[in-house]
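Model: You mentioned two targets. I'll fold them one after the other.
Researcher: Yes, keep them separate.
Model: Target one:
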Amino acid sequence: MDEIRFKITGMHCAGCAANIEKAVGAQRGVASAVVNLATAQAKVVYDPSLIKVVDIERAISDRGYKASAAGGDNKRADMKPLLSVFIPALALTLPVFTVSMFMHGAFGKYTGMILWLLATPVQFYSGFRFYKGAFLDIKNMSPGMDTLVALGTSAAYFYSIYLVFAGAHHFYFETSTVLITVILLGRIFEEAAKQRASGAIRKLMELAPQKAIVIRGGREAEALTSSIAKGEIVVARPGDRIAVDGIITEGEGSIDESIITGEHLPADRKAGDRVIAGTVNTQGVIKFRADKVGEETVIAAIVRLVEEAQASKAPVQRFADKIASVFVPVVLLVSAGAFSVWFFAAGAELSFAVTAAVSV
C-alpha cells in the first residue's frame, strides 16, 4: 500500500469532506480515505497496482472539488475571490435591508422594483457559487449546504418577484440578500481559520533556509538547499541558519538550538558534534558534512508529525461527520414540514408559510 496526501480546494463544510471520503473510498484499490476540513487535506491509502493517483484525483474532481498532491505546499490561500463577491454583496444588502425594515414606502410604488434591482446582483453574482455547488450536489445525489442556501434564497427572491407583480407592499428581498451576505462572511472567517490551522507547518518549513554555502570543486558556492547531497561540505557563518543536518568537520561555533530543545542559551559546538537544520549559528565559522538532507532532516520529520496530527480526526470531528451525512436531508424535510403545517393545517397566509420554510 502507498500513502498520498492531496490539497483540496472548494470544501466549505463537513458534508463536503464526507462526500469526498465516500467518493474516494468507493474506488477499487483504495484502502482508506480521510479528509480534514480544517487543513483542506485528504490522506489516501491505496494499492498502486489497482488504482493510479490520477484516478483518485478524477474521483475528487468529479465531485466538484480540485485536488493536487500536497507536496509540502502550505502557502497562504488567496482571500481575494471571496472578498470580490462579499464586498458588493454587503454594499447592496445594506440598502435593501434598511429600506425593507425601516423605509417600506421610501420610493412609493417603485419600492419593489428598486429592491428587485438591488437584490439581483447579490442573488446571481455573489450567490453564483451556491447555485454551482447546488448543481454539483444534485448531480452527485448528495445535497449539501449549497443546496440549502440556493433553495432558501431562491424561494425568498422569486416569491418577492411575484409580490412585485402582484402589487404588494412588503417583500422578502432582504431575506435572500442577508442570507447570502452573512454566509459569505462565514466563509471568510472559515478561510481565515484554515490559514491559522496550516500556519504551524508553514512556519516550520520557513525555518530551513532556501540557500546555503557549499564547497564544490574546492570553492565556496551558493546553492539551493534542495540541491545539497549527502557528503557535501556546507559552510555556516555567524547569523546563518543551518541548511541540513550534519556533523561538524572544521571550526567551532555557538548554535542556537531553541527551536529543537527549547533552550534559549546557544550551545557550543566543535568538530565531531552534530548540527540540525533550522538552528542558527550565532558565533564562529563552521564547516559540516551533510548526512541528512531533504525529507530526512529533523525539521522535515517534525513537519511530517504535525501534518499527520492535523490530518487525524478528533472524536468530535468524527461525530460531526456522522451528523453531516444526514443534516441536509433532515433540514429539507423539516422545512417542507414547516411550510405544510402553517399553510395547510394552520391556514396561515402563503407569505408566512414561505417565510417559515426559508427560515428553517
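Model: Target two:
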Amino acid sequence: AEVALLTRETVDHLTDYMGTFSIDSIHREESLFSNPASYANIFSIRPWTVNRRSELEQLLASPVTAVITDYPERALRLRERLD
C-alpha cells in the first residue's frame, strides 16, 4: 500500500521527512500549492480539493501526479484538452 502525507501545513525538509517515514506521495490542500515547481523532486503530488477551472488548468499543466476534485468529469475534459 502507498502511504501519503495529507496536510494543510508546510513541512520543513519535506523530502527528508518523506524518506524518513517512507511516504510515497504528498496530498496538499490546493490553496497552499502556490508553487508547483518547488515540489519537482517529489515523486507523487496530489493537490486537493481542486474545483475551480482556473486552478484545475494550472495544476494539470504542472508536474502533479493527479488532482483530487469534486468534479472529475471537468478535470478529465480539461486534461484531454491540454494533451
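Researcher: Noted. Anything on target two?
Model: The beta strands are 4-7, 25-28.
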